[in-house]
Amino acid sequence: MTVHRILSWSPSAIVFDCDGTLMDTERHWQEARNITFRIFGLTPPAGFADRAKGVHYTDCGALMARETDKPELAEELADTLLTTFTALVEEDPVTMPGAAALVRQAARHRPLAVASNCPRNTVESCLDRAGLLGCFAHVVVAGDELRPKPEPDVYRVAARLCGVPPEKALAVEDSLTGMESARRAGLRVIGLGTRPPDPDGELADLWVGSLADPELVGWARSRLGA
Prior knowledge:
With about 230 residues, the chain is α/β, with parallel strands linked by helices. The chain folds into 2 domains: about 5-25 and about 95-225, Rossmann fold (3-Layer(aba) Sandwich), CATH 3.40.50.1000; about 25-90. The protein has helices at about 5, 25-40, 50, 55-65, 75-90, 100-105, 120-130, 155-160, 175-185, 215-225; strands spanning about 15, 110-115, 140, 170-175, 190, 205-210. It has a 6-stranded parallel beta sheet with strand order 3-2-1-4-5-6, sandwiched between helices. α7 links the parallel β2 (about 110-115) and β3. α2 crosses α5 and α4 crosses α5. The protein starts with a helix and ends with a helix. The model has no long low-confidence stretch (mean pLDDT about 95).
């Protein structure tokens, strides 16, 4: 079983996603999408939240424009989405259950990085307000030179900056988009949430309900200090 690829293994570095993995910000993205739709007088298409999860904000703006037959609004939608999200998350930065404890414990034994589709200032501001920014040696974000998830760029670079080959690094992700990115980069993957049916379920080696999962906590205590 693929779970043994995690539970019987000690990674040389760990790379975390930020939104929905370390920070409880997926609800802010959802609210920001809804507000943006309202600002432009548009109706969210059915199932849009699922299709937008983990998608880079510029791609999300394009998706919003395409699915509402307003292609000319793609850039404005993306800009409004990011501005709205930033305001919401600055008002209410909250870590995901178990995230702070796992990060602080892991940081004592392994190099850590963040790989995100969000702008750097947003990621660093969230982590700083949560008191976690200093735990990470590197913050890698999608940009002009690095393609956003599901492309493998951010995870590949994060592993390299941590000084390890991808196959010796662990990714922690909550979105299928991010899991695909990490898998394509060559990392082993812990997925947060309910395991979906195959083939999506195969994107993660181990699925846990949260970073406070007892099995995960026990693994971290026994393996990360080794």
